[in-house]
Specification:
Shape: globular
Largest sheet: 6 strands, parallel
Order of helices and strands: EHEHEHEHHHEHEHEEEHHEHEH
Distance between the termini: 48 Å
Strand content: 15-25%
Oligomer: single chain
Helix content: 40-55%
Radius of gyration: 20 Å
Strand order of the largest sheet: 1-11-8-7-5-6
Number of strands: 11
Number of domains: 2
Bound molecules: NADPH dihydro-nicotinamide-adenine-dinucleotide phosphate
Structural class: alpha/beta
CATH architecture of the largest domain: 3-Layer(aba) Sandwich
CATH topology of the largest domain: Rossmann fold
């Protein structure tokens, strides 16, 4: 089987271009979509993500701001900030970058966001609306994956899909969206028995577990479509040799940088078994940001009745 790449980076660039056109139309009518991102603490990955989000939002013409708080921020301070953003007429979309520093109740913070400005779709009201098939902002990562599958004409109706991982931000909404698209969905997790055999039955396998190259050849049915959500950093030579056997370019990159990124799917095995797959990096990651921008525009239209 010669697997081909599902080019998330390209589809994401298309979505960002379309979003920029929508922003220009709205701006011509006097409504510039506004996105406010809250980040608390020093988590290096979060800092990279929010920088990218702000940069790409601005490139699309969105009025974007990042509000940075130290790791010592209190829950009360974050709730006060969200209250201010909820009331600000120029703010259409609010995103709280996760994880939050220890001691802060993530659910209380997310539930404080006005559901009409909840760009990640994590508010319980929006989660419920999504499950019921009503209009709601869709969490950006699964929304991006659905957009990729649609634009790449991957058939879903009647197919068997396995979603590996059941988090609120990826696995659960992914399963909801695939069910809505008429796939027959199984959600697997850390307590699932016979995981490789179960996954190998899937026509579509979505891996979102946060375990480097965990999904090996025995998890992947011949000709399956494989979506790799995982973003994991590996920093030992043993891990590099396991994930990228015989890949001299990766070995050189590791020697230079001291670490490498790898998804939840084994990058060599997937090429042997899948028909189509998303690479890491350059697959799901760029789609997540593109859908954040598209969701911001949707919320702007809905809030301002445009
Ligand atoms: P969480 O840690 O919230 O959830 C992980 C899920 O995977 C849990 O349901 C857990 O099961 C399951 N799991 C963990 N280990 C195993 C195992 N050995 N076997 C079977 N299931 C397992 O992760 P997220 O959903 O937030 O993220 C998953 C990955 O996706 C991470 O690498 C993250 O960095 C990445 N990510 C990437 C994004 C992107 O834009 N590309 C966006 C968001 C996340 P259980 O419930 O039983 O504990």
């Amino acid at each position: 089987m010669t697997a081909t790449i599902l080019d998330g980076a390209k589809v994401a660039a298309d979505i960002r271009r379309e979003t920029a056109e929508s922003v220009a139309e709205l701006a011509a009518r006097g409504a510039i979509p506004g996105l406010s991102v809250i980040v608390a603490g020093e988590d290096p990955a979060s800092q990279v993500y929010v920088r990218n989000k702000e940069k790409l939002a601005r490139e699309a013409g969105i009025r974007a701001e990042t509000l940075r708080f130290p790791a010592t921020v209190t829950e009360a301070m974050l709730l006060a900030e969200i209250g201010r953003l909820n009331a600000a007429p120029e703010v259409d979309a609010i995103l709280v970058q996760l994880p939050l520093p220890g001691g802060i109740a993530t659910s209380r913070v997310l539930e404080a966001i006005d559901p009409a400005k909840d760009v990640d779709g994590f508010h319980p009201l929006n989660v419920g609306r999504l499950v019921q098939g009503k209009r709601a902002p869709v969490p950006c990562t699964p929304a991006g994956i659905m957009e990729l599958l649609k634009r790449e004409s991957v058939p879903l109706r009647g197919t068997r899909a396995v979603v590996l991982g059941r988090s609120d931000i990826v696995g659960k909404p992914m399963a909801t969206l695939l069910t809505k698209a008429d796939a027959t969905v199984t959600v697997a997790h850390s307590k699932t028995r016979d995981l490789p055999a179960l996954c190998a039955e899937a026509d579509l396998l979505v891996a979102a577990i946060g375990r480097p190259a965990f999904v090996t050849a025995d998890f992947i049915g011949e000709g399956a479509v494989v979506i790799d959500v995982g973003i994991n950093r590996i920093d030992t030579i043993e891990e590099v040799l396991r994930c990228f056997p015989g890949d001299e370019a990766k070995a050189a990159a590791f020697a230079a940088k001291g670490s490498l990124l790898v998804g939840d799917v084994h990058p060599a095995d997937v090429k042997l078994r899948a028909s189509r797959y998303t690479p890491v990096p350059g697959g799901v990651g760029p789609l997540t940001i593109a859908l954040l921008l598209a969701n911001t525009v949707d919320l702007c239209r809905a809030r301002r009745g445009l």
